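User: Reviewer 2 asked us to show a designed sequence for the structure in our supplementary figure. I'm pasting the C-alpha cells here. Could you produce the per-position amino acids so we can include them in the response letter?
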C-alpha cells in the first residue's frame, strides 16, 4: 500500500493550490459568473465557474461540486481541456484544471451567492468585462475541446503587474 510519504513530499519544493475552472457552452453562448461586490478587484468582472479543490478530492469531483454549489447544475459531461500554472511570484502558486462542456441547450441554473450567472454570446466577448486571463483561456479551451486535445499554460506578471499567459 502506497503512503503519502512514498511520493517524496518535500516542503522545500514549489507548492501550488489546486483549483478548477469550467466553461459551459451552448450554441454560441457561454455560461459565466459576474462576481458580486465581495470579490475585491474581481467585482463586476466575469469568469467561468469553478473554485478550490478540497483535500482528498480529485479535480473532476471538485469541478462537479463547484457546478452544483455555484449554479445547481448536475450531470454535466465535462472534458478536461487544459491545465494552467500560475506563478504568483511567491509561494504557493496556483494550479488550475480547466474543463469544458458543450451543452445541447441552455440549462436553467440556480442563483449563485458568488455573483450573477449569465449566458454570454461568444462573439461579444471582446467587449465583455472578463477577468484578464479569460480572454486567452476561453478560446484555448474551446479549441482544445473541439479538437479533443488539451492545452498547457503558465501565467506570470511582468514588473508592471501586467498578466501574461504563455501556452506550451
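Assistant: Here is a per-position design you can include in the supplement:
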Amino acid at each position: 500500500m502506497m503512503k503519502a510519504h512514498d511520493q517524496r513530499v518535500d516542503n522545500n519544493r514549489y507548492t501550488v493550490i489546486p483549483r478548477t475552472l469550467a466553461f459551459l457552452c451552448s450554441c454560441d453562448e457561454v455560461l459565466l459568473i459576474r462576481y458580486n461586490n465581495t470579490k475585491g478587484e474581481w467585482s463586476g468582472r466575469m469568469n467561468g465557474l469553478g473554485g478550490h479543490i478540497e483535500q482528498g478530492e480529485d479535480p473532476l469531483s471538485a469541478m462537479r461540486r463547484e457546478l452544483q454549489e455555484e449554479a445547481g447544475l448536475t450531470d454535466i459531461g465535462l472534458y478536461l481541456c487544459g491545465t494552467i500554472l500560475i506563478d504568483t511570484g511567491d509561494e504557493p502558486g496556483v494550479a488550475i484544471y480547466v474543463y469544458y462542456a458543450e451543452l445541447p441547450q441552455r440549462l436553467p441554473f440556480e442563483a449563485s451567492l458568488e455573483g450573477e450567472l449569465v449566458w454570454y454570446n461568444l462573439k461579444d466577448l471582446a467587449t465583455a468585462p472578463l477577468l484578464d486571463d479569460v480572454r486567452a483561456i476561453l478560446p484555448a479551451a474551446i479549441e482544445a475541446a473541439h479538437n479533443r486535445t488539451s492545452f498547457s499554460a503558465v501565467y506570470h506578471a511582468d514588473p508592471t503587474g501586467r498578466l501574461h499567459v504563455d501556452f506550451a
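For the response letter, you might also mention the following. The domain at 29-167 is CATH 3.90.79.10 (Nucleoside Triphosphate Pyrophosphohydrolase). The mean pLDDT is 88.
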